Amino acid sequence: MRSEIPNNYPPIPLLSLALQRIHETDPTAVPKARTIAKNMNTQLIDSYSLHHIEGLVKIPYSHISTDGLPDGMFAQKAHGQEHKFVFFPGVGGNLTDQISTAFDIMTERIAQSQTQPIPPADFYFIGHPTGPGGEISQNWLDGLRSNGLSQYNEAHADLLRHVLPQDTEGKNIFYYGTSMGTYAAIQASEMLTEWQGKNANILKNPPGSYERERSSLGEKLQLVVGYGIENALRRIRQFAKNTKDLSQRDQEFLTSIAPILKDRGISLEEDEEQRKLKRQGRLEELLILAKKPVLPKTTTPTTIEQGVWDLISFSPKDAIRFMQGKRVTVYEYITHKLTPDNHSPEPYPDQMMHRMISAIETI
Question: By three-state DSSP, how is residue 227 classified?
């Protein structure tokens, strides 16, 4: 079975893995899935860019759109409406980290467009400045120590105002954040005031509590220890039979696209000084969260999906709620859902895979 993306660009590992999983479940769905994956792969690499704030930081980002799909695939477009999806990774994350979620949304949108007009969608992937392609300065690190995670507020707002349309009429924006990327999602939704009333947050496994600040030493240490354990598990677990660990495949992908990006003036190479700054930046963010593991307040409609057995955010109170069947709690702006999932290294859980295949079969 051929799981590679058949085009001139190296395949994004998460898209190749999706094709492999689809083949294992329903080989007849692979041709259409491959067409979508190939298109998303090409769009993401074609639009890979850097947002540069002089003297402070460089943030990688990229863009995929339903308008870039092959002619006729997105069958019926709802005119006058547009949906924008913005994805934030965790600390040190790559901008491709959440393309599995985008692939799921894309296949669902294409399937829906076969029977009814659907708003066209744009997907924006924001990399982490301490991750591949990013760059931070000593000034940025000093600001992080002084300002905490609010250091990102203006940087992300500046980037998003650069890529999002100025006209918000008929448009909605959805901020997706996973793990520590949930903080960036909330802060971005609050900073872009021109989009307020037209946006929503979808957060998965945030490392902090929304209800209260976790104040005990044990709760604060839990974040650092839990992050370390999960990172170790992620490195040693194989993501599929007879395949390399996904982190290794990601590194090979980055090595493969480095010459392509270099021709555009984007370097993935790092000197020892930059590697040191990034290590300090990642550590600083972990320490900030460990000191005050509480989510920022928000007035944006927000859905939080919290894995009840997640090592970073586990609480006995949530576990008791879950076992009692009290899995949804509604606050003023927040809907908090407890799920049996944790920070699973499997980017395509069975439920997602079945949903994607069902969608692809209708295209």
Answer: helix
Burial-class residue 46 by CB neighbours within 10 Å (0-12, 13-18, 19+): middle
pTM exceeds cut of 0.85: yes
DSSP, collapsed to helix, strand or coil, labels residue 194 as: helix
Cα(173)–Cα(302) distance, rounded to whole angstroms? 12
Q: Is 17 helix (H, G, I), strand (E, B) or coil?
A: helix
CA-to-CA distance for 329 and 8, rounded, in angstroms? 48
- Torsions phi, psi for 215 (to 5 deg): -105, -20
Instruction: Using alpha carbons only, give the angle 86, 88, 93 rounded to the nearest 5 degrees.
Output: 145
- Going along the chain from its start, the domains and CATH numbers come out as 54-244+272-361 (3.40.50.1820)
Report pLDDT for 226.
Answer: 62
Q: Are 239 and 245 in contact (CB under 8 A)?
A: yes
Residue 39 contacts residue 69 (beta carbons within 8 Å) = yes
Tokens of 15: 């898209």
**Residue showing tokens 């990774």:** 89
Does residue 344 surpass a pLDDT of 80? Answer: no
pLDDT for the residue numbered 205: 83
pLDDT the model gives residue 6 = 43
For the stretch 152-169, pLDDT in tens is: 999 999 999 999 998 999
* Residue 336 to residue 71: CA distance in whole angstroms: 39
Question: Which one, of 69, 68, 62, 112, lies nearest residue 85 by Cα?
Answer: 62
The alpha carbon dihedral of 267, 269, 271, 276 has a sign of positive
Nearest to 256 by CA among 2, 3, 8, 6: 8
Indicate the SS3 state at residue 67. Answer: helix
